[in-house]
Amino acid sequence: MLQRLASVAVGIGDDAAVLDGGMVLASDMLVEGVHFDRSRLEAHAIGSRAAAANLSDMAAMGAEPVCMVAALGLPEGYGDAEQLAAGIASHGVPLVGGDLSRCGELVISIAALGRADPPVRRSGGRAGDVLWVTGRLGAQAVSGFTAPVVPRLAEGRALARVATAMIDLSDGIATDAGRLAEASGCGVLVELDRLPLAAGADVRQAAAGGEDYELLAALPPGVPPPVPMTEVGRLTEEGGARLVDGSGAAVELSGWDHFA
């Protein structure tokens, strides 16, 4: 057992696990009634979202995904398994196997395998690093979590050359920025008036809505991001996470909680 564990370079606590040699492993599970409403999304869209959640973890490590496997729990009489599988494969990463079982609700569990050289971790940030975010935030909250999701795989690989730390915003920057900072042994300051808002989104939706799957990256001061991004804050010497409005006043917000 100890010999097998010695080949694990990065274990629990990051967006994905890393084995010696740069192989990256990530897994995600989506459950009907918790992560999606089957009455509002077609099977292809559900599969696409499930895969995007998984591949976004790969992006946050700067990894290039190689393949995926999926375990599906299907309600009795479910007739959209083929469309579900097609949605999982819609991001261009091969779906190479998995398993099926009957289940009371639709459950999708995906594991992806990829490569990163080197991987980017949450824990490499330093006080003074500047925080940048890809894309726009709040689209999922505005749409009722039905907007298309695009994993930032190309951006993650480009950022791997310069970022000191990175995380995907699956639960919202209000929560995930603090996770990156804590892993890096720093505090964090997020300036809410800088957040790039999706069409129709307000600051609360952008900061706390979750499931946008954009990337939050820490870069050394003076180092520009290699892809289009928005500066939203910085890592600090002082511990803890602070979200402030345009006047500098603290704002209390928290992101998505799967168990709430």
Describe the structure.
The protein has helices at 2-5, 43-60, 81-88, 139-143, 153-159, 173-183, 203-208, and strands at residues 8-10, 17-19, 23-31, 64-74, 95-102, 107-115, 130-133, 165-168, 187-191, 215-219, 230-236, 241-244. The chain has a six-stranded mixed beta sheet. It has a six-stranded mixed beta sheet with strand order 8-10-7-11-9-12, sandwiched between helices. The protein folds into two domains: 2-115, 60s Ribosomal Protein L30, Chain: A (2-Layer Sandwich); 122-244, Phosphoribosyl-aminoimidazole Synthetase, Chain A, domain 2, CATH 3.90.650.10. The mean pLDDT is 91. 23% of the residues lie in helices and 28% in strands.
Keyword list:
single chain, 260 residues, alpha+beta, 60s Ribosomal Protein L30, Chain: A, Phosphoribosyl-aminoimidazole Synthetase, Chain A, domain 2, 2 domains, six-stranded mixed β-sheet, 23% helix
What is the tally of beta strands?
Answer: 12
At the first level of CATH, what is the class of the largest domain?
A: Alpha Beta
CATH architecture of the largest domain: Alpha-Beta Complex
- The number of helical runs is 7
